[in-house]
Amino acid sequence: MARLANISGKAAAKAFEKAGWVAIGQVGSHLVLVKEGVRVNLSIPQHKELSIGTLRALIRAAGLSVDEFLALLR
User: Fold this and answer.
1) Is the pLDDT confidence value at 2 over 80?
2) Which single residue of 17, 30, 37, 68 could bond 64 by disulfide (Cβ 3.0 to 4.6 Å)?
3) Contact predicate 14/56, CB 8 Å
4) For residue 3, is it within any domain?
5) In CATH, what number is assigned to the domain containing residue 46?
6) pLDDT reported for residue 1
7) Which residues of 34-61 are buried (b: 16+ CB within 10 A; e: fewer)?
């Protein structure tokens, strides 16, 4: 398994959008993403760096593995 690095909220949102998530709006500093057929909303903080725990929780909520997410970053 590859290792997660600190990435920005903007980069994380782009990767999730490649996986089919769609931005529906922003609440404060958090971008909200939804996906058809999935009951979970992703709330991504738009910070310069996301903590590893926050990023890992978002990846898990999206139903992706860490390796799948890292492939989307490329």
Assistant:
1) no
2) 68
3) no
4) no
5) 3.30.920.30
6) 66
7) ebeeeeeebebbeeeebeeebbeebbee
Which tokens hold the place of 67?
């390796």
The range of the structural domain enclosing residue 14 comes to 9-73
Span 5-46, pLDDT tens digits: 899 999 999 999 999 999 999 999 999 999 999 999 999 999
Q: Name the residue among 38, 5, 7 with its Cα closest to residue 22.
A: 38
Q: Is 2 part of a structural domain of the chain?
A: no
Supply φ then ψ for residue 34, to 5 degrees. -130, 160
The whole-angstrom separation of Cα 10 and Cα 7 is 8
Number of domains in the chain: 1
For 57, residues 6+ apart whose C-beta sits below 8 A from its C-beta are: none
